[in-house]
Amino acid sequence: MPAPDFNWISVEVRVPTRSPLRTLAAGVTEAAAPQETVTIQLPDLTRWPAPVDKARILLESAAEVEHALMVQYLYAAYSLKGSDEVQDPAQQAALDESSPDSWSHLLLGIAREEMGHLMTVQNLLLLLGLPPNLEREDFPPRKDLYPFSLHLEPLSQRSLAKYVVAEAPGNAEGIDDIVEIARESAGAMINRVGVLYGLLGLVFVREEDVSPGGSDEDWDDMLRQLAEVAYQQSPPATWHLPESAFQPQSVANQADPSDWQVGDLRVHRMADRAAAVEAIRDIGEQGEGPTTEGERSHFERFLGVYRGAAGLPPFPRAGEWVPTRDVPTDPRLDADFTDPRTKRWAQLVDLRYALLLGFIEHYLRTAGDNRDILAGWIVAEMRSRVAFMARRLTGMSRDGGTARAAAPFTLPSALHLPDAEAERWTVHRERTEAAIAKVEEMQQSDAADGTDANLQSLLASDRARLAFIDAGPTPGSMTSFARDIRPLFRAKDIEHMVNLGVDLSRYEAVRGSAQSILQRVSGTGGRPMPPPPDQRWTKVQIELFERWIAEGFPE
To answer: Which domains does the chain have, with CATH numbers?
Structure first.
């Protein structure tokens, strides 16, 4: 179940005009007075009196927000047209997916970073001996928790304004016009995500760390001011975690940064308070907190898309050119998909999404053998399955006409895995069987899907995975080309390399070129694969490929 909701209470606090705490008030404004009284909306955490209880509700809530933001930004990125769908050169540049400055590239980068934030929050939960939490509410969320009413919606100036303001730091200037549009779009605009990370910072530091006279950096200054507000709710002893709360042995289960570290996606693994505090600060400064680290922050990048940056035009207002496809808002399978073939593809995306979430939780709940296999499956689902299918859906009709489809990202009815290891594999088997049945239905129902190479490859991979699960995963289980290696290559990777004479979808071709492929993906020789600006392979992908070679290229 999602984390329980909490009430919000209004607390008045007098702060300097330049205080980062001001961003936690109702909106971001530019004021001239050296001191001003602002109203901070603070969650009432009196129902959770112990510091570890406060940490749990805040971390579970933060995990929900990160998960929801990640999916929302992915949906917005996939809603954008391709550069071949517009004629104007400036518009083509903004939509050119091969450019690192394109709108889709920037949004997908931010979505990946939200995944990094989500995994870091999972590591913080594990550090306190708490279970991982991949919950979120369906769209639109009902709880009064999120920075605004989140929607799976096509990117527009109004939705982009919400993203800019939600990610804005306390020292943001010159965005009053964007704030106004965001308020019109979202109603009463309160950036509460910053409150969550500010309070998490407070809970994880010691009481003496927020005493007067410490560092004057924005983040530390904000924590001291926030402590004064929080202590009005309950005494200091109820806010700060004791040393006994930290479980350093949990590192073995935590997400390994090397499995995820691509580009600006940062995952923090931690064994003590100091590392946890730094992780919370890093998330806050890159994205959802009340301070910012500058050019790499989500705020700066969203603002660049909104205003126009890197030689690209500003994002168009309503009535100007339309940069998105006609995808639905908050799609529902039964209500929004009347084209039978498209509905089957949307159902398949949801099945892959359920598999992905299950693999992530299993990965976090095991420190033993097959963890690298699970990590490889996670990467394959994210890059080669869910992302590919979600983008493909936006090119398909949802009603037999010109309206386009999109990935519903429906949560599975039973999200969390059982405690017993064998029962976790049973869940994976049932979901894999459902995915196989759906692909077989698709192949039988439509001639184009019957010959679709991606579906054929997916079916082979899932059948190999099912055989692996039914055999009973054991320590030192062998890799498999169909199950583990073929899914590492995206459709665009296969298309690119076919033009260079190597068919990455065929076992014989990959085996024959294995050393050359390894050099390309690891950056040790030949032309890099994938080529920039696409993200390079992670360490776990490279090590899985190396293991496959060392094991003698099992099919």
So the answer is: 8-307 (no CATH), 333-550 (1.20.1260)
